[in-house]
Amino acid sequence: MNYFKCLIGIVLFGCAASNGNNTGGDTAKANEHYEIWNSSVDARVPNMLKYKVDSVSFPRSLEKDGVTRKRPSKDWTCGFYPGSLIQMFHITGDSIFLDQANLWLPYVEKEQWNAGTHDMGFKVFCSIGEAYKVSKNKHLEEVLLQSAKTLSTRFNPEVGCIKSWDFGQDRWTYPVIIDNMMNLELLFEASLISGDSSFHDIAVSHAENTMQNHYREDNSCYHVLDYNPKTGEVENFLTHQGLNVNSVWSRGQGWGLYGFTMCYRYTKDERFLKHAQKIASFIMNQPNMPEDKVPYWDMHAPKIPNAFRDVSSASIYASALYELYTYTNEDAYLIYADEILTSLGNEQYVLNNIDAPFILDHSTGDWPKNDEIDTSIAYADYYFLEAIKRRKSLEINM
Predict the structure, then answer these.
(1) How far are the Cα atoms of 10, 46, 61, 342 from residue 256, in angstroms, in the given order?
(2) Long-range contacts: 65-71, Cβ < 8 Å, 24+?
(3) Which of 105, 116, 115, 104 is nearest to 141 (CA)?
(4) Residue 88, pLDDT above cutoff 80
(5) 42, 75, 119, 338: which is the annotated catalytic residue?
(6) How far apart are CA 229 and CA 140, in angstroms?
(7) Catalytic-residue membership of 166
(8) Which of 199, 202, 271, 389 could join 190 via S-S bond, C-beta 3.0 to 4.6 A?
(9) Which of 179, 298, 310, 338 is an active site residue?
(10) Is 119 a catalytic residue?
(11) In sequence order, what are the residues at sequence separation of 6 or more whose Cβ sits closer than 8 angstroms to the Cβ of residue 328?
(12) How high is the mean pLDDT of the chain?
């Protein structure tokens, strides 16, 4: 089947509503057309569909030799491949994607009891949570609620945040990473489903403390904060995946932008919206941002302009900016996200001639460990497809 013809067409035309604060130039640019799904992207779809279901083989990334790196459900990335299939269902309306995703979900379910991870949202909500939005299946609802209960056990009231990692005790005592903002969506949804406000309260507390402590004056964020679990005081600032503690790890900025935008969705707290806008401004005005809006893996990477890019960061930015646009009507967010998707749809960033269940290439996973460098990674595809779904929704509602 040619999904290129049935998805959202060759181009989308921006038609952003003006909020009275935009310049004529911005409005004109919002009316330009952007090609965000093309034949190169479309050619990758069969590879996603034919990947065989295997309980211990969730596709995570592409190795240097072209072999798919496979992981069991305990890996933090396990939810992204089935989640990507569900995003494809939303985009196309074709149940073949949903059916394929549903085959993977039973192998994610055991993670609902895994109290040793903060990545419950990534694993369970990006897969089972997305499926629940479609089916409202009672069993999936029970899995989501148990997952939220399990995640809540990692919350320390003195700190006001959910603990991120149990490893690395030689480096930190109570680490909280910016990535953890993404797992709050599970808690917010669990509160809506169950009526139990404790989930909501934990999520808000985590977001408030992250907003207060993780961010620098220029609205960039640290990757890791180490708290004293008895006093709640911040004892150290660190990085685990950035260049150094004071650098600007690109994906971390995306986690924050997406996370605080999502928090506004559930709380309507203007503090979270304003903070998301500050983060967006920081990202969009980066002097080291390449012209095509696909950032270097770290905005202070020493080899710029020859540093590795991170497509996953760009995908996260685009998806978050589309949602942020819905709350602000700021044309600049729509334009920037459209430009990102235009770039990602180009042959430069689409995986070519490799039999693997991925769409995009050139993401950077963990540069300090020289792991998953300049390759395909499952979460880049997930947020790319979510961004397309959100852009399609905007086009319908404009």
Answers:
(1) 31, 33, 23, 23
(2) 66/354, 66/356, 68/356, 68/357, 68/358, 69/372
(3) 105
(4) yes
(5) 119
(6) 33
(7) no
(8) 199
(9) 179
(10) yes
(11) 19, 273, 277
(12) 92
